[in-house]
Every structure is written in structure tokens, then in C-alpha cells.
Amino acid sequence: MNKAKKAIAERALAIDAVIEVTDARLPASCLSPLLARLTQGKAQLKVLNKSDLADPERTALWLDYFRAQRDTDALAIDAHNKNDCQKVIRACRALAPHRHGLDKPLRVMICGVPNVGKSTLINGLIGKKSAKTGNEPGITKSEQRLILADDFWLYDTPGMLWQKIIVPESGYNLAAAGSVGRNALDEEEVALHLIGYLKKNYLHLLRARYRIEDADGDTHDDAWLAEIARRRGAILSGGRIDWQKCAELVLHDFRSGSLGAITLEEPKEWTRWLKSAQAIEAERKRLLAEKQRLKEQG
User: Fold this and answer.
1) Which of 4, 83, 98, 166 could form a cystine bridge with 277, CB 3.0-4.6 A?
2) Which of 244, 266, 248 is nearest to 169 (CA)?
């Protein structure tokens, strides 16, 4: 974390724009507040990758949300699509039109939390496999300068993590997408939270994937998971539910897109979550300060 912070802070002093790659299924949860502070005042391009797996109606809402911010553009892409990668290059040039030619090359830093497809996008931008790719968080270890053109320099930075995730829903969403390590949250708990959201927002997809017609939005999350286990054979000896196997199955179906086009948050929803989390965090800090004051007073 400290290494990534130092690398980004140093590079931010001499760049023209920042590409922040997010997962289109959880665009705000992927954003790093620390990155926003370190790159304040720089032109921003929010790239909503994996848009082929996301809900297109919600993706449109997120694009409008980001584009309404100062000096910010946003694109929804599939990093495996070459044409989409070219859109990213054109958007970067539009953000800093004064930077072109050998004497004034466009300098762009690309950042993203683990598992959002940053390395895949970089490979698409340069047309060959230069950045290491993988499914495990944090595979990019150090900064690289990549030459996209004589007047376009791209700086890849280490995976950007969070000092603290204060929005509980973000933690669950990031875990569901595989952007935090498996030990961060219990997979069964994450699967239950995912089912709880899907039954309220994507009930038709949940029913279709697991061929369950008699459960609805009022059915308890545990009951949903148990029925999925029975339908998919996640059963132990004696007819006991294999909760771990079933949780892994549900998470895999979400991550692979087998559940359908799903987005786990929308702008208005995210705004509510953030406001609530900030109020709780402010109260926590107030209580800690009061405790410290009382301690100092003896």
C-alpha cells in the first residue's frame, strides 16, 4: 500500500491525465479515495471495464454521473475489444489536446484496484502482451512506462488498494467481484449478501439461472442459498448443505457473467450508502477523540 501510494504521488506530479479503470458492475466501489486526493486537479478518464457483463441501463447512469464531474470523461468498454481500446486512446487525447508531438508528449497514468482488468486493457492499448495479467489481486508489482506512440506515454502503477473501506456495501461488492483477497470476507457471507441484492433487483435472472420459481424477494437469503445448493448438487453426506461449495458456485456465476448482465450499485444508491457511512465514520472519530480527551485529563 505504501509503495503504491508513493509511486502514484511521485508520478502524479508530471502527468497530464489519469485513467482509472473500474469494474462496470461496481463502478463507485472500485474508486480509490486516496487516488482521487493524489491526482486532484488532473484530467480524469473513468473506464468502466467489463461492460459486457454489466446492466446497460445502469451503465448509462454511471457514465452520466462521471461525465457530470469536472474535467472528467467516462467510457464503458470491454478491454478484450480492440476498438474499445482505441476509444480510450482517443478520449485521453481529447482530455489534453495541448499535449502532442515529440516535444510535448501526452503523459497518462493508468490506475485501478485489483481484478478490474487494468492489465488486459494495457495489453489492448499497446497491441501486445506487456503487462502481466492474472486473476489474483495485486499482480502488478512496480511502475512501468509504456510507449503507445512517440507522443503518448502510459505509466502503469501498482494495484491501488484502500486504506480503509468505510462503505460496507462496497466491501461486499468488491469481494463478490474478486477485487479483494479471499481472506478479507467470508465467502458464504458474501454470497448471501449478493443473493440478497439480486433477489430485490434481478429476481428474474436469479430464478432463470437456478431454475427456481417458487422463491421470491421475500424468501430468506439462507433459503435461497440452500435451494441453489440442492439444485446444483452442493450436498454433503447425510443430506447436509455444503455451504462453502454453494457460495463459491454463486460467486463464480456472478464473476463469469453466467447470472446475466448485472450491476450491483447505481449512483443514487451509492450516494445513500456513502452518506450513511461517512456519518458513522464521523461519529466513530468523535467518540475516539472524546475518549482520548478524557484520558489526557486523567
Assistant:
1) 166
2) 266
User: What distance lies between CA 269 and its chain's CA centroid?
Assistant: 16
pTM: 0.89
Burial 145-157 (b: 16+ CB within 10 A, else e): ebebeebbbbbbb
d(CA 41, CA 46) in angstroms, rounded, equals 15
- Nearest Cα neighbor of 51 from 82, 87, 76, 73 is 76
Comparing CA positions, the residue from 105, 106, 100, 154 lying closest to residue 127 is 154
At 62, list the grid cell: 454511471
pLDDT band at 145 (very low <50, low <70, confident <90, very high): confident
Tally Cβ neighbours within 10 Å of residue 237: 6
The answer for residues whose C-beta is within 8 angstroms of residue 21's C-beta and 6 or more apart is 30, 47, 49, 110, 111, 112, 116, 117, 118, 121
Contact between 164 and 171 (Cβ < 8 Å): no
What is the tens place of the pLDDT at every residue in 199-218?
Answer: 999 999 999 999 998 888 88
